[in-house]
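It is worth pausing here to work through a concrete case rather than discussing structure prediction in the abstract. The textbook approach is simple: state the sequence, then state the predicted structure, then interpret. We follow exactly that order.
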Amino acid sequence: AFNSEENKMIGSKCFAELMQEKYQKFFNINLDCIGNKDYTSLFVYSNESDASHLLSNDLIDHLLSTGIVPIMKSQGIYNSDQESFENGIALTTINNTQSSNIHTLEDVPDNIDTDYLGTLAEALGNYITKEMNAEEFFAHIPLENKNKETEMRSYGRQSFSKEEFEETFDCKLDFANEALSNILIWDYRPVIKVNDSPDEMKVKTLQDIRHLVIELDYDKNWEGPEVRLDCITYKKDDPYEMEIMQAELAGGGYREGDLPDPITIEDASYYISEGNENMISSFHENDEYFLWISARIIDLFKMEEEPTHEEVVERYQERLPVDYIEGVTELLLRHED
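Step two, the predicted structure:
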């Protein structure tokens, strides 16, 4: 841990600069908010470098061999000290700090799972001292240059215009209008190389998209998107994805079997996140997939005074882009194979 993590990560940035004076290549494995009893899933986040991707994948494989089931997340969702290093990853049991008890009066030692901390410390120590192939990682070998057939975890934040998305995935976004400012694929499902050639990958389809982001800008004078939709699918027959779903929903403030009271907008049910009223969600499914769509209306963050619950509900009823939510649901759950 470093001082001033929440003050623009001053401590870790200073340490990284000192390390660069002494070493040409080094890694940071950042442990942050580990062992909260209420959050039992371990999340692994990777920086953007090829070496970081390799390290996170290899560490995940090692942890799986010890019985610890980590969940891979692409960078950008959990910001912490690993970002001060070119080659860094983060491990945490907190997926959404806004719905956790950190920095509250409930953040007390009794909430720490010390047995879990011991198990993870032993597994991580054995990996670093006995299993980690540092030379391979230091070589910065890109994932796509591996020659053997292998499962690969894909990293998202791939941006598309409406036309590019329609052409790439052979579909029509008939629900889209002039407010659409950006389409992001934040995360794909793992894909398999079809042969030994690093350039020939399985062609991605709509079914391969795990996390799709839609950004809407109704007022072109606004800085950044006004509305953001996060659309995440989970494959029902994949136990790993079901584990991810439970952890991510809990991190978003939605506990299994204990959803908040719904609000009705255009005859559909939506759920405002407990502990984070800046997010409202709807849930959908077909025979193969669950779909979680969460919406954030950015001006709720920028109100001078904290709105009441009634004001939040009214704002969602006025501003929620139901046409986009219905369109994405149709796209991801009712597409033709």
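Step three, interpretation. Residues 141-156, 191-201 have pLDDT under 50 and may be disordered. The first strand starts at residue 28 and ends at 31.
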